[in-house]
Amino acid sequence: MAGMGDTFNDVISRLWDATGSQHDPAETPLDAVTTAGPRAVLPSVFDVTGLATGAVAIATLAAARLAAARHQSPPPAVTVDSREASAGFAGEGLFQPIGWEQPPLWDPIAGNYRAADGWIRLHTNYAYHRAAVERVLAAHDRDTVQAAVADQPAEQIEQAIVEAGGAAAAMHTRSEWLASPAGAATAQAPPLTVTESGHTEPAAWTTTRGERPLTGVRVLDLTRVIAGPVCTKFLAAYGADVLRIDPPGFEEVASLLPETTLGKRTTALDLTTPAGRATFETLLADADVLVVGLRADALADLGYDDHTLAALNPGLVIASLDAYGWDGPWRNRRGFDSLVQMSCGIAAAGAAAKDQDEPAPLPVQALDHATGWFLAAAVTRALTRRLTASVTSRIHASLIGTANLLYTLDAPAERPPRPKPGDFTLEDTTTVWGPAKRVPLPGHIDGIPPHWAQQAGPLDRHPATWNAR
User: Fold this and answer.
1) pTM value?
2) Which residues have a Cβ under 8 Å from the Cβ of 272 and sit 6 or more positions away?
3) Over the stretch 238-291, which tens digit does the pLDDT of each residue have?
4) Cβ neighbourhood burial of 324 (10 Å; 0-12, 13-18, 19+)
5) Which whole-number Å values give the CA distances from 195 to 223, 391, 396, 421, in the listed order?
6) Given CB 3.0 to 4.6 Å as the disulfide criterion, which of 58, 145, 221, 387 pairs with 244?
7) Handedness of CA 394, 21, 398, 128 (dihedral sign)
């Protein structure tokens, strides 16, 4: 357990250890990183500021070390400011369109409701999840939903909505969660695990030339919402060719797209058809990294288990994330940051700290963002190992594992007021929809500024092909 008064370097060291392979001899290069800014920026009973600063630091450090390995030079210096890292964790809420309108972040009936014996949160940002709630509760707006849940136990509502294909979570204390089958099964789950296998031939990207660490690296992106897209946006910022794949007609949460599609090309493939599978397998054979944000068994159910993926591309780095972990009865449950906070005790701890009954979540979607940065660090470190040791890596991450880690960090004694949007510096950007201001990518590598080759825009607007290396 971290002690009171932990420095940012203490947190960075712990997170670095948590995101690498046990075979990776690299120690935390803390002499190459400088942190700045207040120890507490985001007010919380948890150390959200430390989590944000540390997560940004380890991914940026990993990119700097990959650059050094590719150029056979000392790692460039890295600087991370806690204000910038905290702003990055709030990026989707701070995004400001100029001259055009952005859809709301939340569906009108998404949110917390008082049930007969506690609280329940409904996640309805996807149309099919909202439809499940409407079917189960025979309700179509906040007033009728509240009336429908008011005399029912929260867990009973949760189970009915989940069985109907929706997404919901009853609020539990930490002890209640750990006493449940799902909580007990994931009580020791780390934020991610990394396993290495076999010696492989040198990857094609290792012979490409470029100033940025991930120049020439091809990344297939099968992720949604926030965590996975945060990872792949980081990889794109430092040179990776990222191709996001969605099913034809898939409707992502529209308000997130200006942030989550930045730097990426987007296409659509139907993996239930021979043509779609053939194209996917062609892309897969020439990819260097696959990032998957589907439920635990979803890709295997489509016929692409680990064995099949390895046969198609033995050198592929595969990074997968889910909400409720890779063990126990909830490994395939639909989940989102706000729901995991309700399930595992975070929202209840916030309520207790404020001496209130209503759930009090983290000030940002910190589980999502931190997991995305952890994945970016792990993928980038895996690519370094691919270059230096000719091994490939399999990475598993989860929001519940990140929540477990957050519980081990003691929050600073100081709890500042919640920052206002104007407290953070934004930069000008362009999107397909029009100009805007956004949070700059936090973390700085000396001499290697981030850059995105693609504007943010709608899904399915590019061909399903790779760019030339």
Assistant:
1) 0.96
2) 302
3) 999 999 999 999 999 999 999 999 999 999 999 999 999 999 999 999 999 999
4) buried
5) 21, 10, 9, 40
6) 221
7) negative
